[in-house]
C-alpha cells in the first residue's frame, strides 16, 4: 500500500528537485564537453574537406584515377 500524506508529498517534491538538479548538471557537463571539443572538430572537418577537394581536383585534372 502506498503511503499518503505530507511525507509522501515531500518525498515526491524532493525527488523531483533532485532529478531536475541532476538533469541540469548533465546538460552543463555536455555543453562544456562540446565547447572543449568543438575547435578540434572544426580543424578535422577542414582538413578532411581539403583532402577531398584535393583528390577531386587531381581526379578532374587527370580525368580519372
Describe the structure.
88% of the residues lie in helices and 0% in strands. With 65 residues, the chain is an all-alpha fold. The model has no long low-confidence stretch (mean pLDDT 88).
Which blocks of ≥5 consecutive residues have pLDDT under 50? Answer: none
For the report, how would you describe the main beta sheet?
none
Measured as a percent range, the helix fraction is: over 70%
**Rg over alpha carbons:** 27 Å
Average pLDDT score: 88
Tell me the strand percentage band. under 5%
Detail the topology: elements first, then pairings:
Elements: H1 6-62
Looking at this protein, list some descriptive labels.
1 helix; mainly alpha; single chain
Summarize the structure.
It is built from one helix and no strands.
Amino acid at each position: 500500500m502506498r503511503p499518503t500524506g505530507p511525507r509522501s508529498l515531500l518525498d515526491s517534491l524532493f525527488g523531483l528537485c533532485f532529478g531536475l538538479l541532476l538533469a541540469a548538471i548533465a546538460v552543463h557537463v555536455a555543453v562544456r564537453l562540446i565547447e572543449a571539443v568543438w575547435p578540434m572538430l572544426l580543424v578535422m572537418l577542414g582538413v578532411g574537406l581539403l583532402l577531398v577537394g584535393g583528390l577531386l581536383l587531381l581526379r578532374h585534372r587527370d580525368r580519372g584515377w
